[in-house]
Batch of 2 targets.
Target 1
Amino acid sequence: MGRVVTLLSDFGSRDGFVGIMKGVALAIDPALQLVDISHEIPPQAVAVGALVLRSAVPYFADGTVHLAVVDPGVGTARAPIVVRADRALLVGPDNGLLAPAVAALGGARAVHAIENPALLGQPVSATFHGRDIFAPAAAHLARGVPLASVGPPRSGLVELALPAVVVTSGAAQGAVVHVDRFGNLLTNIDRAALRGFRHPPHSVRVIEMFTVPLHATYGDVAPGELVAVWSSWGTVEIAVRDGSAAAHLGVGAGAAVAVAGG
Amino acid sequence: MGRVVTLLSDFGSRDGFVGIMKGVALAIDPALQLVDISHEIPPQAVAVGALVLRSAVPYFADGTVHLAVVDPGVGTARAPIVVRADRALLVGPDNGLLAPAVAALGGARAVHAIENPALLGQPVSATFHGRDIFAPAAAHLARGVPLASVGPPRSGLVELALPAVVVTSGAAQGAVVHVDRFGNLLTNIDRAALRGFRHPPHSVRVIEMFTVPLHATYGDVAPGELVAVWSSWGTVEIAVRDGSAAAHLGVGAGAAVAVAGG
Amino acid sequence: MGRVVTLLSDFGSRDGFVGIMKGVALAIDPALQLVDISHEIPPQAVAVGALVLRSAVPYFADGTVHLAVVDPGVGTARAPIVVRADRALLVGPDNGLLAPAVAALGGARAVHAIENPALLGQPVSATFHGRDIFAPAAAHLARGVPLASVGPPRSGLVELALPAVVVTSGAAQGAVVHVDRFGNLLTNIDRAALRGFRHPPHSVRVIEMFTVPLHATYGDVAPGELVAVWSSWGTVEIAVRDGSAAAHLGVGAGAAVAVAGG
């Protein structure tokens, strides 16, 4: 069995685009273990793709190659790149999509442009670099082709502007950054943001209108009730037990969330 | 190639949760053959998940490990379990999700709690046991770890209350239990329910309003017409040829269906 | 690692039908490399399935087996077939679904009916030939079973009537044949249709109402603007940069598109 190559995109599952990328990769190395992370990233939503990718990469074995394509700039000057982190390689457009995942893996050890025409699909189209550039590069890298063979080194990668958490004495103010399929509201407030609190927080404020108790698990409240928990992303999550907090509160990504400590 | 591990959940395909479970499993055994059964079970719909799982397990080879997570009680006292059936292992929460599939495979030979912290992701979160408990347990079991190493035996598993078929002399009264993506209405009336009939039935009654002819195949009626057939689940199905019976009749799961024999 | 078997269907991802086909195939050969092309073909939409399949098959390695099931006639007289092309085998119902892909692979070298009961699931149902006929046939063929063992030769396969492109001196008149998940309008006008033009075209007319400039890439217009490009299918595509042309223009499959040359 070959190396694991993960795939994330905004290509959806209807038009065959993902299958085509896999066909290209397997024509290069039929033993690859291909794993979909998500192809339902909303079209061109680089930040959503970046957050989902970041949430997933820590759980894959060392040596995994992560291929990600959310690429509104396909065909323009944005560079196709490969990033080496301590435990993984990441392949995609240099538009911020990879940066949070790279940071979660300890930062970039090297960044190279993907330019070597001998490793790419020919001719390279102007509309489907997932097929013509990213999938073949990922497959060759998974087989062991060195980064230097893919293209010249670059000095860094494009960072992604994500909503920041503002921490003051005793309060952390952040935002909902993702609504998952259950309607859970995932925020950007992690445990580190609460490190200076003298007392552990007991509740969360959402859009300055709702106070939601912070508990260990969904089951600590009755079905249908609001509850805040520590999410699988390691951040504060607002949920409704057996329901949808997004529907219940009528809020989504961007909504202000605050945690007050003692 | 390693063993087949199937996955079923209500996690959807957008947020990366399934990819994360696969990453965890492949980090334990990179040679696993991972097969998705469904991740579009409606959120927290244990009965739907149980029926879809039951419909699929008979078609997998001996030795398959079935991992299923539809788990409204994540983080509460419901036990994570592994069940040994004659031909497969089943891993999931003990909330009824596994029981119909276990029965379809001939019943439980052994049930063990999943408790061994050495085999689980650490720390175990309160919100994502698919990642922290079920996926690692399934991967270790697929590699050959014995059930006794996973945790202590339990005396049984939680059964699922499913709608029953009432059979009287010459009639079987059941219900629609699932609407598939084509709008076909799958009922719980199997051939065994009709065993006592003196004459084979010729039609099916739906919500005491519609009489639908029972035929061998969709093609026995004209496009757009109602037809009852024996479904791929082995039960009576109400369909519209080249159309949706659910839309045509305006009925769904729970609708009463009756078959009268001679 | 065994051969690649691709899967395309209108089965969706919710009901477990695709997982069941994979279970059947892996019970025959657990080393198969299974790749989904699409299971979100609209129900019974043979032409959509045929176009998506055709777009994908050229990118898979020689020796791939393509399994496709969009089969409104399941259970009727239409034949289950396997087609040998120069580089691949194709398995599915003989209803036009396979024909465009076969043509893209250079044409049929042989066509055989799938009839050998020893290779099929038993009993063969009247409602799920994907499980009982096509998946087992594809798996056996991927393992190397010769076509002649599957069933007797047939003289040809059912062709699919697709919208034609009318080329006159200096103009090519075609149609939108697919709307992808981004809302891009994929037409049937390929480069060959423009071969007789004395000057390269600079624009495309959509439903005789909109004139859209033809550029090398989406990035050649401002965000939100209409642009025509050469699609990943090798045909003229009408798009909105960072948006949906289908929503912007209110048109879909069937809309007339014309390219005028010099």
Note: The mean pLDDT of chain C is 95.
Target 2
Amino acid sequence: LTRIVIVGFQSAGLTAAAAARLYNREAEITVVERRTYATYHPCGLPFVLGGEVPNIRDLVETTPRLPGVNVRLGVEAKAIDTQEKMLEVQDLRTLQVEKIPYDRLILATGSQALKPPIPGIDLGNVFCLRTVEDGQRILAALSRSRRAVVVGAGPIGVEAASALRERGLEVVLVEMQPAVLPGMLDPDMAAGVAERLAKAGIRVLCSKAVKELRGEGEVSSVVLEGEEIPADLVIMAIGVKPDVELAVKAGLKLGPTRMIAVDDHLRTSDPDIFAIGDCAEARCLITGRPLRSQLATTAIRMGRVAGVNAAGGDEVFEGVLNAVVTMASGLEVASVGLTATAASEAGFETSTARVRCLTKPHYFPGAGPMTIKLVAERKGQRILGGQVIGDGAAGRANLLALAIRKGMTAKELSQIDYCYAPPVSDSIEPLVVAAEALLRRR
Amino acid sequence: LTRIVIVGFQSAGLTAAAAARLYNREAEITVVERRTYATYHPCGLPFVLGGEVPNIRDLVETTPRLPGVNVRLGVEAKAIDTQEKMLEVQDLRTLQVEKIPYDRLILATGSQALKPPIPGIDLGNVFCLRTVEDGQRILAALSRSRRAVVVGAGPIGVEAASALRERGLEVVLVEMQPAVLPGMLDPDMAAGVAERLAKAGIRVLCSKAVKELRGEGEVSSVVLEGEEIPADLVIMAIGVKPDVELAVKAGLKLGPTRMIAVDDHLRTSDPDIFAIGDCAEARCLITGRPLRSQLATTAIRMGRVAGVNAAGGDEVFEGVLNAVVTMASGLEVASVGLTATAASEAGFETSTARVRCLTKPHYFPGAGPMTIKLVAERKGQRILGGQVIGDGAAGRANLLALAIRKGMTAKELSQIDYCYAPPVSDSIEPLVVAAEALLRRR
């Protein structure tokens, strides 16, 4: 009988529990979760703000539905005794402390929204967008807000800005990097997204750092270099920081990204403890380098591997390609693998091609533009990454993910089989057009 | 200087001309095409009938836009002198005959709609749906028609039936096989499509052969075994027959499917003559067996290879997986590789899994069902085929096409990277769910 204890019941912890349960019918599986409700869907929050999802309660699963798993809500993990193999926990209602013995421990402690240490960060109406409570607070503030500033133009920032604009607020989106969606897109592709945001009425300011938030009690303006922007609502969307406190206290090693270091079985420096999800370091499948993935999909994929391994299996987590999709004021934007910028930084000599196609035949109503940028190694033209903008971008990024994983070249990509029917797609697949453009670069 | 002559200016011929032009700046390229307009988009015809495409003229490209290629419209190829390497052609307006010398000849003669030799087939208001003229005739007949029978429930038949129903006609769809979309789907998956068609008000009759069409001058009923269905409009959509007359007269070999036999460079039995598109035999990438592909995408892919080879290159056409998508009364249906039925016929021992997921998170408006069936080899679980129904089916089939081409197993498919954002997809990719279901079959 194996006793598996899991800390955290979001995407990673939930999936690990389910995978362990499936793999080993005998294991005794306990999950402790600080929240008083089971799981929620953080990626849905921007769409609650925008009104597409009518009720924030819809994002919350109040009770765990996982037969054969003992899920203890409202219970916080306080310390790990790695010698005795005990997890010390505290019930947040009764404040009672107890020790839970484990044979295998899985840390899925997640991450928290990053709040920069700038003056005014604690003013009223300055929010993050990470928890259900964040969402509720912003919803409550919406009706008395007119001018919003969103700081950070990653996927969440872009979606939040789009949502607030949709709700009729004046919105300024501020990004420190020279272009929006900096991790996902090269600047040439980001320009198209910024254009769409501007068209929707969002003022986009890049290469601007926030110096200070001003106001009395509540925020009234955001101070950038050389500019002060009036604002009665601010959303900080500059990223998340991994929750590694428990691991550090237990003496587990951190990796170069300051996340919990894990091997390819997702074991930490203590072989009986696994780490998964936003608190665990991932590895880039292309470069082999450690990176912060912190995606729900990565959490789920890691959860599956660690759950099986903790239950006695032998699964390998090979790494991530960071396939990401976001909606920018109705524009579908997806990315996978390395951008040209990231590929150069990683030491690759690259060859790139950018093409513009239609999502359907020109004569079909609803045909829209699709822009694709492919990044390949100059020699041999192995695909390293892709950026896709337009309806159906996510599907193309998923296909590119597979192509990258399989080490495919532009030549091979130009020869793929694909479907065609006018209401769905054009007779020449945009990815093939992009691959052929790369071939002409040889 | 190479003289390349191409017969036929649809998907295959057009692509071959363009590819040859790109590959060899010196080549002299001539295309002869019987039609008086350049190309048209036959796959768009059902959507003209349904009204989504407002004008049938939108499907026609009246003038060829291919710089550096001499396209001769209204000119019919009559005979090939393989000894002298001359193509005999006739101008259909002047009736003048001439001989065009070639170094390489590419046959892209296409196919014609199949008309079964049953009584009444030549009655008025009995149509095929293949050419622009077919479309125009049906459009003209629509206003005076009330009851339609569509014979053949392949993609075109299903789309035509959906279109006529959309226009308000009473529609009966008759299929000889036991289920709709027989080449694309196994019967268990076809049931869902038949249900959707029925819901749209189409009467679907399977396992029924048409014996006779009755009427005086114009059709008034369709006679099946044991049933006579009143009809004032009939569309025959039972398939196409390859146009191989020119090739046969020239002594070129046909393959077991009675299409022009070609090698992996798309050369016919005469090494200076290539054949591509609907008239040329394709090969299944999985079984290696000859098959009738007759898809626009196959024509395009073949055109590229033959165009380059005719111009002095060395490209291989590896075969097809027959990725197909169709719309059944608004339902997206896609298929790739082998169905379970086809896999068994090809001698595979198979393992299959069918799952039902959502296209988006349950809380997101517009989330709809997606059904996926995967077919794998029982041993080792190499993926052989997939059938997908629901929004985004085509993208999944494209991804499966790549997985099949790369010889991926269910295990590998369960580990893919994919994108997630609530407006676009759920946090667990349906293909992963399907792959995991297959894994549990081991």
Note: The longest strand of chain A covers residues 350-358.
